[in-house]
Recover the amino acids of this structure.
């Protein structure tokens, strides 16, 4: 059976394939047009060689999760030639790609904005009895803009398929550790897999999603998952039962008085999620409630370039300030206390920022350093 589709191909008399979009660990994704409703959709099909007997069950599970922060499952089709599910298409970039292209790390406000929406989506899935089981940045679609206006969790519909494939590959890993470097499915999942998954994958439940949520939260604030990648993650998570969990705060924590309270609130949530005992972790509803209690700004962000930065030595460094030019040429003022980045402010840096009215210049807060080679 071939699942390779071509542009202009009509599937099930309704879906016109427009272009190939991306590949996941177990599936190929195409952009298609729903001819019946004249809308753009994502069309997902198992990769050649992937056992797809659970794909239908996965689609049924995905259709049960109805929430603004979850990519909706629209349709499912299967015959002797093709198998595919149709899902809401979210234009933009997945969170993994956004982190790779744009960010060294995220400031507390943007982190809280993203995680709050993630928590709401996860809570709805758990409420209807579904465990995602493969929660990671590449399964979180975003609008791709600097403020991450839109965020939707995807691939609830292949949760069971993911379970099957990862379980099989973990069995192979026990026999041949090279499986880790040859398997995109297992390699992508490892940094976010809870300790109980390595003991008994089938018995792991919704708390494994909570662990993965905590790992993603840490990554947003620090730039890397808390226990590393690949083999290092396996080793570090595996020894937790002997050493206990001791994750270190990002080095920039508590250096910005304006966000210190928010940082502490985020850290408290992360620590509660990254608890070794699954029973001791909060449930998704409790995480949503914790975010409801946090105070953070969630407004549009612009992209610009630092045009000037001055250090006021006479003021003991407290008078450090600069200006940012946006794409329209407007100049906005910022102070060093609201600058988040792995480097000090320097002319020519690419940044994102929120802007507020001010005299004689509008003011920026926060200002987040972006990677210079973003696409």
């Amino acid at each position: 059976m071939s699942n390779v589709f071509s542009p202009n191909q009509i599937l099930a008399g309704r879906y016109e394939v427009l272009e190939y979009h991306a590949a996941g660990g177990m599936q190929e994704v195409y952009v298609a047009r729903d001819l019946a409703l004249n809308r753009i959709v994502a069309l997902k099909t198992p990769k050649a060689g992937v056992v797809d007997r659970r794909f239908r069950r996965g689609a049924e599970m995905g259709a049960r999760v109805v929430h603004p922060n979850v990519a909706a499952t629209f349709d499912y089709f299967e015959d002797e030639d093709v198998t595919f599910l149709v899902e809401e298409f979210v234009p933009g970039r997945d969170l993994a790609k956004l982190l790779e292209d744009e960010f060294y790390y995220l400031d507390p406000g943007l982190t809280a904005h993203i995680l709050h929406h993630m928590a709401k989506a996860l809570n709805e899935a758990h409420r209807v009895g579904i465990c995602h089981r493969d929660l990671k940045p590449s399964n979180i679609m975003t609008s791709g803009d600097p403020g991450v206006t839109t965020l939707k969790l995807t691939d609830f519909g292949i949760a069971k398929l993911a379970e099957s494939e990862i379980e099989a590959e973990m069995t192979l890993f026990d026999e041949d550790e090279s499986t880790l470097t040859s398997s995109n499915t297992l390699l992508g999942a490892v940094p976010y897999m809870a300790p109980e998954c390595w003991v008994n994958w089938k018995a792991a439940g919704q708390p494994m999603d909570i662990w993965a949520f905590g790992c993603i939260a840490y990554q947003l604030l620090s730039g890397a998952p808390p226990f590393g990648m690949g083999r290092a993650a396996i080793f570090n998570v595996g020894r937790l039962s002997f050493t206990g969990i001791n994750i270190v705060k990002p080095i920039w924590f508590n250096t910005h008085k304006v966000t210190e309270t928010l940082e502490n609130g985020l850290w408290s949530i992360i620590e509660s999620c990254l608890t070794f005992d699954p029973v001791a972790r909060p449930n998704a509803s409790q995480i949503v409630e914790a975010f409801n209690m946090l105070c953070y700004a969630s407004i549009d962000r612009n992209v610009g370039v630092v045009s000037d930065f001055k250090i006021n030595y006479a003021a003991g460094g407290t008078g450090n300030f600069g200006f940012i030019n946006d794409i329209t040429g407007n100049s906005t003022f910022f102070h060093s206390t609201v600058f988040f980045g792995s480097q000090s402010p320097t002319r020519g840096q690419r940044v994102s920022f929120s802007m507020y009215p001010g005299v004689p210049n509008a003011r920026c807060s926060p200002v987040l350093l972006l990677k210079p080679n973003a696409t």
In short: Residues 108-127 form the longest helix (20 residues). DSSP finds twelve helices and 15 strands in the chain. The mean pLDDT is 86.
